[in-house]
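Protein: Helicase Helix-turn-helix domain-containing protein
Species: Bacillus mesophilus
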Amino acid sequence: MNYILLLTLYGLEKINGERTVYSIYHLYKGKRSSQTIQDAKLFQLEPLFGLLPDLTREGMERSVQQLIEKGMVSSVGEGAYTVNNTGRNQLSSFSIPKSLNGWAYSSITAVFWERLSLTIQCLSYLIHHETRFIPISRDQNTMQWVKSFLKNQPGLREVVAKDLHDELFSVLSNLDELQSTIFVYKLTSLRRIGYTNTQIAELLETDSLKVSISFQATVHYLLDRLEQYPDQYPLLSRLAMVSNKPTTLTQSTSRTMELLQQGRTIEEIAAMRQLKKNTIEDHIVEIALTNPSFDISTFINPKDISIISECIKNSGTNQLKLIRKQLPIEASYFEIRLVLAKLGGAHGNSSRIT
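Structure follows.
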């Protein structure tokens, strides 16, 4: 089975018929809306956020249709599907790379990779005294950045090249052979041009999308290590300094957060921003999902939090209507969503909810 079908099946298994297939589509595309952010958190799909920017609705629909024809999913409503035993058997041998973190890094992966690959190409040519070559990246910002970066490095080019090699080797040696191999194949040097995903897939006799996901997982692992241990990798850390890393919250939600911190109520914020009350509630749920220290007791009685939390855990679902039906108390959908958010998705592992 090709990789896009497996990723689609994986996403459908995660949402379990509680959202339409288009929620997966928006999530894989990397749409930063309140609803997509909430879905990524609630259904634990953050690793795959933004990893398929070229995915089309038609492509997603074709994948679902193929899964239906293979007898792996069943329709449970318009655009909603659950994975059956046949599909689950297919997924039993499937897993995504552990280091994937699209939520944190999908928007900066390309910039970091362009800088790194062009720097390596430049050093490869310069240490062999070759000054004329076609750069692997023709992006003007990237070329200017790398030119400045190399100009400001003290010492001989050979020393810089060796230090960068050693830093990369130190990181890549912690990964499995497939990820390291794919990463190295994509590098351009004096002696060869980096391979495309399709070329690597042919060499390794695998799926080109699997190559792409594996490569992105490697870059995410690199970025994560550089965030944690910048002093161990000074050259790579400089290359990873990207100013456009997204904030956790959407811009509109950030503004709502500022007003909440000023002590404004939901109704006041809605009036001031000329937005619907439901929109402000969406923002608050997004804040609760992304900020573990956010106190939801301002919006819901602590006793009710405990009751709703217990009901969610016992119900085994994220579907608001089903949870509300089983509750022994009156609660709004907003209150249920808040508690779901604090439970951390898939009923989380939160030991304390406030």
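Remarks: Residues 295-354 form one domain.
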